[in-house]
Each structure stands twice: as structure tokens, then as C-alpha cells.
From TrEMBL, chains A, B:
Enzyme class of the recorded protein, top EC level: lyase
Biological classification of the source: Bacteria, Bacillati, Actinomycetota, Actinomycetes, Kitasatosporales
Keywords assigned by UniProt, alphabetized: Lyase, Pyridoxal phosphate
UniProt xrefs under PANTHER family: L-THREONINE DEHYDRATASE CATABOLIC TDCB (PTHR48078:SF6), THREONINE DEHYDRATASE, MITOCHONDRIAL-RELATED (PTHR48078)
Protein name in the entry: Threonine synthase
Modified residues (N6-(pyridoxal phosphate)lysine): K131
The UniProt record lists the keyword Cytoplasm: no
Family stated for the protein in its record: Belongs to the threonine synthase family.
Superkingdom: Bacteria
Known EC number: 4.2.3.1
Domain Tryptophan synthase beta chain-like PALP: 94-400
InterPro entries: Ser/Thr_Dehydratase, Thr_synthase-like, TrpB-like_PALP, TrpB-like_PALP_sf
Biological source species: Streptomyces agglomeratus
Example GO BP: L-serine catabolic process
Requisite cofactors: pyridoxal 5'-phosphate
Amino acid sequence: MAVQSVEVDASTTNPLPVDLGPATALSCRECGERFELGPIFACSSCFGPLEVAYDLPLGDADALRKQIEAGPDNIWRYAPLLPVPADVASKPSLNPGFTKLVKADNLARELGVTGGLYVKDDSGNPTHSFKDRVVAIAVEAARAFGFTTLSCSSTGNLAGAVGAAAARAGFRSCVFIPHDLEQGKVVMASVYGGDLVGIEGNYDDVNRFCSELIGDPLGEGWGFVNVNLRPYYGEGSKTLAYEICEQLGWEIPDQLVIPIASGSQLTKIDKGLKELIALGLVEDKPYKIFGAQAEGCSPVSAAFKAGHDVVRPQKPNTIAKSLAIGNPADGPYVLDIARRTGGAVEDVNDEQVVESIKLLAETEGIFAETAGGVTVGVTKKLIEAGLLDPSLTTVVLNTGDGLKTLEAVAPTTGQSAVIRPNLDSFREAGLA
Amino acid sequence: MAVQSVEVDASTTNPLPVDLGPATALSCRECGERFELGPIFACSSCFGPLEVAYDLPLGDADALRKQIEAGPDNIWRYAPLLPVPADVASKPSLNPGFTKLVKADNLARELGVTGGLYVKDDSGNPTHSFKDRVVAIAVEAARAFGFTTLSCSSTGNLAGAVGAAAARAGFRSCVFIPHDLEQGKVVMASVYGGDLVGIEGNYDDVNRFCSELIGDPLGEGWGFVNVNLRPYYGEGSKTLAYEICEQLGWEIPDQLVIPIASGSQLTKIDKGLKELIALGLVEDKPYKIFGAQAEGCSPVSAAFKAGHDVVRPQKPNTIAKSLAIGNPADGPYVLDIARRTGGAVEDVNDEQVVESIKLLAETEGIFAETAGGVTVGVTKKLIEAGLLDPSLTTVVLNTGDGLKTLEAVAPTTGQSAVIRPNLDSFREAGLA
């Protein structure tokens, strides 16, 4: 795969000025080398991942807080902290974000949490997962770089998010999936009218194909949200940190429980919290970040428990398919954050995932996808192990919607009884 | 079925003072007789339907507008105009509402609308349909009347909304459905932990059974949201009118296109608009209300076209199952409103419903349930017929989520191509 990169001084490759607001450059997370803003994702010196560097509006925190609070009820209220132009809110977008932070008192009683338990419920996004956040940012980068086609490799959720965002924003979309996905995911991903291409192979094959396509003339003008636009895309997860703190009255919670797929979301939430502190929008205080995995795909949890700095890849086998990345790119960074903040990484088995989906539904009326079952289940396990302090404020993420993973709970839900349409039959059922 | 009713002066049946905020009584829509607030739904004199009467905060419109704007981002910002106690926002609820009003410029171009086209997208509610609004109000009535079990008859969507709301609000739930619903709907309705009872029979049988249960000691303490709590429940739809006007900068749109099932939603939106005018929150101006049905269940549309005042029942046969009420209770009121405001009632066939779901998805990235296909399709048809003026501001309702009616679009969506994981194979597919 050809790694494309441009050094800051080489201004020839991108003749148009790129306006991505406070974003000033891309910077290598490993060696720190800086590159001009562009559709690149790996350092040309050390092959490390690139992330967005900013010129953040340090200074008058009160004025910034007021500006944010007066902004729209979506992620664009945080435009001054994101790689997007200042007028982003006026462009066609699905406008995700500002989802509910639900005070989960019923669940807190079940888990014995006394310090305040909250569920950040991202099933309220336009296509019902947190992916709408990251895709919305990638769309703005795609606009800035002059791309006309939006693309991605996906196992389903991201495909729908990209298809929907592209339709609204006026891009063509062409999305790649393993050819044998469940029909429901295929329907949702294709209803937005873009091209949906099935690849004969597994998700790794799809990924490899996309990397090939980026280096080929066939892929010219294509923005792959999770490949050549990945540095921008990832920044969308920072908005989860911003919203949680603003919704808590501009306070950082003591503890956060975050699902781990690639690990990107967890690292960006940590980045977002640090930015809020640096900007003076919240008071500096310690916080603990906990990572949550499914036992059937728990490379980061395994490394955490073994005290390793590196993550040994696993072959995923879990119902939590949206978290089933066996070789998570940001695994080492996650380990570092969990250890530095005094958190932990834990996993639960599929049975516990299902139990936890039902526990959240039965206590708070929130029907989470399997990833939400993972975070709730891990929260319970961490409390029982004494690793998560129930007397402290805790925020648990639900990143998706149970309607998309019905098959996970189908075997253990259903009708309590089937009766004839009369009172005697109902009486016999013993449910009155 | 026993009709329970209590006259205003007979204060013995309900010894506890009922605090439902500005709601003062129930009033018969046919003969005007008034009854004390209670779990009743039909007039004891003429058997007409009861609706909530209010003591609305007439007077300082600016102060009321400010109070609303400072309220929570959900339907409780309108608490002064709803049958709920003033402290409703502090009670456990799914807190539905304040969903997006999407400026649909792409769809407007497709339909030739130049006066501003908006989609009120209620798929953003907690269980992804407008039912969360009506159920949330019914829950407050159930609290006020001391009920401990929440119930309803349902073909799926309402069952989920009641199950979720009951779980969060601390009620037991026991919901009745036809026993042979699709598995997906059964899973969603049962995941919240309440009882879900399948009835051997069709939806009419389920309804009849619920009416029997209300009159029996077995049903004591049970609030049926769409039967004995129906007058309160229905008021939830007023919030759609409030939100649309507030989101348009406190202006009434010129034209609204609303789906018709029982017809209740349409009549309550009209009621809400009239209240906003009476309160001085919006300027008084003419507006036209259009009703939308599926051809396979179009009793109101048929009556409108034939110039009738009454609605002849039909046997439903359409993919728009959430609208498939063959004998709509509020049909005559809908006819009256459409004629009085200069609107119309129209219907589209199932093929047009599917085309319209896809048109909305492809232009705005909104994946609507079949009812949304009905309103978009009817809008197109009304413009072509010269009945809806494309130069005026128009709001089209999408009341639910495409994820719940995947089967409607499944036959005509899918993968554009299936390829081997290499560039040659992609090139041959002709999609680059």
C-alpha cells in the first residue's frame, strides 16, 4: 500500500487553501513530525498514525462557553474545537450529536452505584449509532479536499452512516462490505441510493481492497472516511467528551466506561477531555477511563491484565460484531490511557452481553446494541471486582441501537403467553 | 363494554386531587358535556369521544415564549400547555420530542417546491416513532390516577413505546398484540421486561379483549394508554404542532402533510396550532392541512373525494401497517379540518410508498418507515394535482423509522454488485 504524505513546506500538492477551522496540521502520534492538512493518514518517516493538530481558542473560557451554549443542538456547537470550517452548521449535514445523557437511577440501584450513574445514549443519532459523528467530520474534510465520492469499508453500521450522510451532503457514495452480511444491514446500507459493493471475502479482505483502490487511478476523487480521511473522522469522537461534560454542567465525570473496537473512540474521548481542561471550560480534576470488550474479542483486555504494552491480535468470535476488531490499531494507546488514569480494561462473555442489554432495557427503557451490553456488563463486573468506585459519578456509553442487533436478544425474548381473546384464557395465563 | 364517566360535581369517585397542570376537565367533542379528569374516554350522555379541556396561560405571550425556550430539549418544555403537572420534567420519563425539523432542500428540488420544504423527523424519538410523545403523556395521567400497570393493544410500534416508557417510569407493563406478529416487533416489544401477551386473533380481537379487561376486576389498576387514557394520550400529538412552529421561528407553516391512521394525530396538530394562535405565541394566519393515506387503507381519502361527511370502513391491505386502521375513529373530524383549512386528503399505492421512502433516503439521508413514504408520496401527488402550492412553506411528517419496516424496501434494494477483492473485478463491475 502506498503511503501518501506531504511535508508542511511542500505546498505544491494541494494548491487550494484548505479551511478546516482551528485545524492547522496533521501530526504523527509516534514521532511528532508535522504534515500539511490533506488526505493522508500515516507518517512518511515512521509510518505512525497521524492526528489533527489545532490552534485552539485559548483565552476567554467564559466567552467560548457562551458561544458553545448558544450554538445548534448538534456537534457543530463545538465547531471551534473541530477540524471543520466556521460556517459548518450552514452546510448540508445529518447534524448528529447532542444525544441524551440519561440519568440512570434505576440501573444505578441495580448496580449499587450511589455517586450518580449516566448513560450517554448515542442511539439517538440520525442513523442510530455514534458513527454519524465521525462521518459528519469526514464529510467536511472530503469537501475541503475536493472529493466527490464518499467511501468506506464496513461490516454494516458505518455503511449506513456513510450512505445517509453522502445523500444529504450531495456526494456520490460507494461503500464496500463483505458480500454475505445479514439482509437487514444490506437493506439499510443501500436504501440511500449509493452503490453498495459486496466483496467475496471477509472484512480484512474488504479493507485490503480499499487500500489498493486508494493507490489506484480508479479511486481518484474518493474519500474513504476510515482510511485516507481517518485522522479527521476520528476527531468526531471528541464530541462525546464535550457533550458529556457540558451536559453534566461543564464537569468531568469521575469515571467513564467506553467500548473498544479499534480503540480510537476511547483515545479521542481522552483527547477531548484534555482539551476542555486546557481551554478552561472545565475544572482540572482526575478521571478514570475504563475500556470494555467482549470476551470473544478481547485483545486489549488480555494485554491489560497481562501487564503488556503491546496487543496480541485475536480472531474475533462474539455477538458484539461492531466491536469485533481482532487487531485494534489504537490498542497500545488505550492501554496507556487506562493505566495513566487509574482505570482498567475488562471483558464480558456473550451471555453477560445479552443479560446486560436486557438489564438496561428493563431499568431505563433504552434498547442498546450489543456494544451497549458490553459497556453495561463491564461496568457491573468492574464494580464487583472493586475496580470501579460506585460512590463516584460514572458515565457509561451506549454507542448504538438494539434494532440493529435484534438477533442477539431474539432467543431469550418473546411473548410471555399466547391466549385466546377472552378473560378466562387470560386468567389461566396467570399474568393479571 | 361499560362506559365509565363522572360528572364534574360528583367528586366522590376520585378522592385524591388530580394535578394535571392546566388540564381542568374532560369535554365531549360531540355534545360539549364536561367531566372530571379521570380514566374515562366516552361521554355518558352521547357516547362521543372526550378530550382534555384547559385553563391555558393566556396573557403575556412573550413571557410564555421565553419560559418555553428556556425549558428542556423535549416535550416538557410545553408543560404549561399539556395535561401534566408543572414538575413533570423531574419525573422519570423517556423525555421524547424536540426532534429535528430538517430543511429538505434536495427533496424540494426533486418535487419542485420553492417555498421551503421541511421534514419533521420523529424517527429521532427514543423508540424511534411519534408514539413516544403520546405514551409519555399517558404515563403522567397513569401516575395521577394511581395506576400501577401500563397496557395497550398494539400491532408492534406502540407495544415497544409502552414497554420502554413503563420500564423507565417504574410501572409494570402488560401489552397485548396479535400472536402472529413479525419476530422483530416481538423482540423489540418484549426486551423491556414487561409482559407481552399474544392474542389468537387479529388486531380487532385484541382491541375487543382490552375493552373487556377494562371492565373486569382483573384489569383493576391498569391504564390502557390508547383506551381509558386515550384523551390524555392523544394530547401528546399537539407537541408536533408546537415544535414545528417554534423551530420555524414561531411561525405557522402554510401547509402541513400528516399521515392518517385513526386520524387523531391530525386533529391534535390542528388543535395545537389553534392554541398557539390563541396564546399569541404565533401570528394568526391561514394554514392548510393535508391528510395522507395508503391506497390499501384509504377510507378517509375516499370519503374526502366523494364529498362525504362520514367514513365507510375498509378492510386494510397495504404495506403501511402503522396506518392500517380501516375504521378510523377521528375520520369525520379529519374531513372537517381538511375542508375547513382548504387542504385535502389523498392516497398513494404501495409502489409509490416504496419509491417515496427511497426518494427521501436518497435526497436527505432520512430512512423513514412506510408512513413516511405515504406522506412524501402524497405530497408529490398533491403538487402534481395542483392541490398543494409548491411556492408556499410546507412541512411533511415522518412519524417513524425505516429500521422497523425493512421488509417494505428489501425487495428493491441490495448490493449494486458482488466482486472479488481485486481492482480488475471492480473495474469490470463498471461502478468506478
